[in-house]
């Protein structure tokens, strides 16, 4: 089990992270990696076309249940792909969003 400050790799069976074609380095990972334990970490390294990424474990000592681990990624403009999704770039103050299509 990881200890604080250790770089960890997460890879889930059935994940189609590779299929996105997006380099997720610097995305925010919301990690449910220990049954009821949910943590947030910045993606330290990922390459487009790969189904795994690394993050720095800073969550203390607990047993990670790899077979039960789930995650989602956010805070990358490339992830905005359906109506009502949005991204705010803190460096440029640019808001990107996809509005609902209103038919009248």
Question: Could you give the topology of this structure?
Answer:
Blueprint: E1 6-11, E2 28-34, E3 37-45, E4 52-57, E5 70-74, E6 86-89, E7 94-97
Antiparallel strand pairs: 1-4, 2-3, 2-5, 3-4, 6-7
Mean pLDDT across the residues is: 85
- Termini separation comes to 56 Å
Name the poorly predicted regions. none
Broad structural category = mainly beta
Series of secondary-structure elements, N-terminal to C-terminal? EEEEEEE
Strand composition percent: 35-45%
Globally, the shape reads: elongated
Widest sheet, order of strands: 1-4-3-2-5
Largest sheet: 5 strands, antiparallel
Q: Count of helices?
A: 0
Radius of gyration: 16 Å
Residues in helix, %: under 10%
Number of strands: 7
Features:
104 residues; five-stranded antiparallel beta sheet; 0% helix; single chain; mainly beta; two-stranded antiparallel ribbon
Any overview of this molecule?
The chain has 104 residues and is mostly beta strands. Helix content is 0%, strand content 39%. It has no helices and 7 strands. It has strands at residues 6-11, 28-34, 37-45, 52-57, 70-74, 86-89, 94-97. The strands form 2 sheets. A 5-stranded antiparallel sheet has the order 1-4-3-2-5, with no helix packed on it. It has a two-stranded antiparallel sheet with strand order 6-7. A hairpin with a 6-residue loop joins strand 3 and strand 4.
């Amino acid at each position: 089990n990881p200890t604080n400050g250790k770089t960890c790799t997460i890879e889930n069976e059935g994940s189609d992270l590779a299929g996105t074609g997006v380099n997720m380095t610097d995305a925010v990972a919301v990690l449910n990696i220990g049954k009821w334990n949910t943590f947030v970490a910045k993606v330290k390294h990922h390459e487009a076309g790969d189904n795994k990424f690394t993050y720095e474990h800073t969550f203390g000592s607990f047993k990670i249940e790899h077979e039960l681990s789930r995650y989602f990624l956010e805070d990358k403009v490339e992830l905005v792909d359906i109506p009502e999704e949005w991204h705010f770039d803190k460096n440029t103050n640019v808001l990107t969003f996809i509005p609902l299509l209103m038919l009248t």
